[in-house]
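Fig. S4 source data, part A: sequence.
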Amino acid sequence: MNPENMEITTMNTEAVTSDTMSTHSVLNPSAEAWDPKIVRGEEKDRTIFITFSNGYPLSDYQIRNFFNSKYGECVERIYIHRRDDPLMPPLFGKVIFLRRSIPLMLFGDQDEVHFTVDGMSLRCKKYKQRNHRD
C-alpha cells in the first residue's frame, strides 16, 4: 500500500458532559458489571443431553476435546451413564459447561444438533431436568 494514498482519520475525543447525557437512566449504578465469560448461570442452563449410536460410545476425553477445540476451555464436567452390565456400551450422558452461553450457541433456535466426532455420531439435545420418582 502506498503511504501517499492513505487517508488518516481522527476521532473527536471530547468528553461527554452531564448536560448531554440522559437523566432518566434505569440502570443501577451500584450493579456489578456483567460479563458472559464470568456469569455461569444455573447448572440446568449449562447442561446438554447427549446420545451415542448403539455400540459406538465416545469417551469423556473425546467429548471434552471436541467441545474445547470448538469453543475454547468450556467443559466443566461430563457424565456418561454406565449400564449395570459392564459389557454393554453406554448410550447417553450429559455435558455441563462452564458458561450458559455455550448451549445457546450450540443450539441456536433448534432443539437438537448432530456432530460427528472421530467418525462417530454425537447427538445433542437441550437438557430438560426431570423430577426423580420415589
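Fig. S4 source data, part B ends here. Residues 55 and 87 are 10 Å apart (CA to CA).
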